[in-house]
Amino acid sequence: MKKNVVVLIILIVLLFVINYSFLDSLLVDFFDEGEFVVVERVIDGDTVVVEGISVRLLGINSPEKGEQYYDEAREFLEEAVINKKVMLKFGKEKKDLYNRTLAYVFVGGKNINLELVRRGFANFYFPSGKDVYYEDFKEAWEECVENLCEMSENDCIELGEFDYKEEVVVFRNDCEFDCDLTGWEIKDEGRKKFVFPRFVLEEGESVRVIVSGNNTSNNRNELFWIRNDYVWTDSGDTLFLRDGEGKLVLWESY
């Protein structure tokens, strides 16, 4: 019995030594309570200003000015954080390409970024890869889709194929009548957006949307999302389809 205890202690010590740096990083994260600041101004639904510094909220992407729900997202964020002492928690990267600070914003222990998703004022957004909060944000989005998000009345369009590696999306009209997709939008989690031109998807037919640098087809049921770069990231992303009123038709994550 004593021999087994000694062996167990030795194994624990070895494990601790081998994984010291890993355990040390966990302890740092555990005791890091974040940075407390006061929010001076809200720029939009996912950006605030603290001490003269712009802070981009992590894990979300809210509508841009002119898009549906822009005002609602901004107003919700103002009510939640303006002139309040908040705690910023940082992710893998502390700055974005525009030199804005990246952070999760907490008020009284509540993750405000997460609440924006849960209430339908933003979609979840993890361009640098999934972090420890990813599942919470995805669940909040699913909860919104079930209960709060304003869904499209059009239930004819189904996702036939989503090949994010080849950047090809196929939608199928499952109804016995034609569907006008003019002005409908395909989006990723971020700002990349394809707007359908004047286009009617006939009953029982499919339309293929291809991300490409040029249009090389005369097939009326093949549309090209003209880009010279990628749309969906290798680290995980989402396809959102919205109708001409900005209401959610369907979504698919990977």
Description:
- With 254 residues, this protein is of the alpha+beta class.
- The protein has 3 domains: 2-28; 35-147, OB fold (Dihydrolipoamide Acetyltransferase, E2P) (Beta Barrel); 157-253, Immunoglobulin-like.
- Helices cover 24% and strands 33% of the residues.
- It contains 5 helices and 18 strands.
- Strands 1-2-3-6-5 form a 5-stranded mixed beta barrel.
- The relative contact order is 0.11.
Architecture blueprint of SSEs:
Layout: H1 2-18, H2 20-31, E1 35-44, E2 47-50, E3 53-57, E4 59-61, H3 70-81, E5 85-89, E6 101-107, E7 110-111, H4 112-118, E8 123-125, H5 134-147, E9 157-163, E10 168-173, E11 179-180, E12 185-187, E13 193-195, E14 200-201, E15 206-212, E16 222-226, E17 238-242, E18 248-253
Parallel strand pairs: 3-6, 15-16
Antiparallel strand pairs: 1-2, 1-5, 2-3, 4-8, 5-6, 6-7, 9-10, 10-15, 11-14, 12-13, 12-17, 17-18
Helix pairs in contact: 4-5
Largest β-sheet summary: 5 strands, mixed, barrel
Provide the structure class: alpha+beta
Shape: elongated
Q: CATH fold name of the largest domain, please? A: OB fold (Dihydrolipoamide Acetyltransferase, E2P)
* H/E element sequence: HHEEEEHEEEHEHEEEEEEEEEE
Q: Short summary of the structure?
A:
The protein is of the alpha+beta class and 254 residues long.
Features:
OB fold (Dihydrolipoamide Acetyltransferase, E2P); five-stranded mixed barrel; 254 residues; single chain; 3 domains; alpha+beta; 24% helix; Immunoglobulin-like; elongated
